[in-house]
Specification:
Elements: H1 3-13, E1 18-20, H2 22-35, E2 40-45, H3 54-68, E3 72-77, H4 81-84, H5 99-112, E4 122-126, H6 128-131, H7 136-143, H8 148-151, H9 155-162, H10 169-185, E5 189-193, H11 197-209, E6 216-220, H12 246-254, H13 258-268, H14 273-284, H15 290-305, H16 308-322, E7 335-338, H17 340-345, H18 349-356, H19 362-370, E8 374-376, E9 379-380, E10 396-400, E11 404-410
Parallel strand pairs: 2-3, 2-5, 3-4, 5-6, 7-11
Antiparallel strand pairs: 1-6, 8-9, 8-10, 10-11
């Protein structure tokens, strides 16, 4: 195989969990170069939520890599399969959406994906174009090509059946409909997260049944959310939306753990892994401050979506608020003066919120803390019993929610 083929493979492997089969992709790339015909790369998105977050961009970046190499990337909007709802990772049947809701979300997807993908190179299609036209006879013909036993092998279905949780017939049809997308598009490659592996493999089998060369399957990791535990998800509120304000993105990235920071560098930037590993060693040896690496990550991510100017301004604003303990430039300053009596009386964060930050009650203050809505000097408060020593340190910045800030300072006189 030529050097050009191996160079493409090396570029495409970065951030890839599994490649089925690599030899097949090597052959397809070689044929593409020989015939000067780009590969058809398919990626499906069911627009069940209106916004794209950083978790989605792991896949988008891999799509961009194929675009960089001159291949045809199809951003396939599942306006038909979205009516079914992908059962991957689901412990219950997904609530049905209307077609209007799906199309509305699809429009926001189309407006957001060009922050990463090339507007000129990206092909957008809708799978209702062929799935919506299948006759009853054609659906029966399609379902005859796969067994119920094979479909029920997937972990999601097996677990639900064992636990007595219903599996609807239309959910069983989902993998077959997604697979037929590959037939309709004659896909050479299909990309998806690791949770999509079963569906992607069904696509290979169904293409063979339709006398097509099977697609290569490439899976990308599921990005952990800000908590570093669960998959990034809007429903878990551990996400970073790509349309979030630059300053908000910066703050969210700065809140993640150091190990998660390196994971984000791997999956959300084009920084070589050799450099990421070098930074790990230097941080462990005390040669580099992880905080500076995290700030660099935040600026890199913001630059992708908002530009370098906005990234620089977000970094400056973060330092203003969290290093220099000033309220954000675009928010009015609510100053709380701390008297000697206050310093004696107020010894815990809950009392400070009630007495000085206009929180209605101790119960409300505890609720805000438990929901992650209170920050003290840039650090989220997780302990409702957190002690404060206002006599020793009267100057603080209190953040409640996203936009309410208070500055405490020693009373003059």
């Amino acid at each position: 195989m030529s050097k050009a083929v191996e160079e493409q493979l090396a570029y495409l492997r970065k951030g890839c969990v599994e490649l089925i089969q690599e030899d097949e992709l090597r052959t397809k790339i070689a044929r593409s170069l020989r015939d000067k015909k780009p590969l058809t790369v398919k990626v499906g998105f069911d627009p069940t939520a209106p916004d794209i977050h950083l978790g989605h961009t792991v896949l988008l970046r891999k799509m961009k890599h194929f675009q960089d190499l001159g291949h045809d990337v199809i951003f396939l909007i599942g306006d038909f399969t979205g009516l079914i709802g992908d059962p991957s990772g689901r412990s219950a049947t997904r609530p049905a959406m209307t077609h209007d809701e799906i199309l509305k979300n699809a429009e926001t997807y189309k407006a957001q994906i060009y922050k990463i993908l090339s507007r000129e190179k990206t092909i957008i299609d809708f799978n209702s174009r062929w799935l919506g036209k299948l006759t009853s006879f054609e659906i029966i013909h399609l379902t005859a090509k796969y067994t119920v036993a094979r479909l029920l092998e997937r972990d999601d279905f097996t677990k639900r059946l064992k636990e007595g949780i219903p599996v609807s017939v239309h959910e069983i049809l989902y993998p077959l409909m997604q697979a037929y997308d590959s037939v309709a598009l004659r896909a050479d490659v299909e990309l998806g997260g690791t949770d999509q592996k079963f569906n992607l493999l069904v696509g290979r089998d169904i293409q063979r049944e339709f006398q097509q060369e099977p697609q290569v399957v490439m899976t990308t990791p599921l990005l952990e959310g800000l908590d570093g535990v669960e998959k990034m998800s809007k429903s878990l509120d551990n996400y970073v939306g790509i349309t979030d304000p630059a300053k908000e993105i910066f703050g969210k990235i700065m809140s993640i753990s150091d190990p998660l920071m390196y994971r984000y560098y791997e999956l959300l930037t084009d920084v070589p892994m050799s450099q990421v590993e070098a930074w790990k060693r230097e941080a462990n040896e005390g040669k580099v401050n992880p905080r500076d690496l995290k700030a660099g990550l935040a600026k890199s991510i913001i630059s992708d979506f908002w530009g370098k100017k906005e990234a620089g301004e977000a970094a400056e604003e973060f330092d203003r608020v969290h290093r220099h303990r000033k309220v954000p430039a675009d928010i009015d300053q609510n100053v709380i003066e701390i008297s000697v009596e206050d310093a004696i009386k107020i010894t815990e964060i809950v009392t400070l919120l009630v007495e000085k930050a206009k929180v209605s009650s101790r119960g409300e203050a505890k609720r805000l803390i438990q929901q992650g809505g209170v920050h003290l000097d840039g650090q989220r408060v997780d302990d409702i019993g957190l002690k404060v020593d206002l006599a020793k340190q009267p100057d603080h910045i209190i953040k409640i929610g996203k936009r309410k800030f208070y500055k405490t300072e020693k009373k003059k006189g």
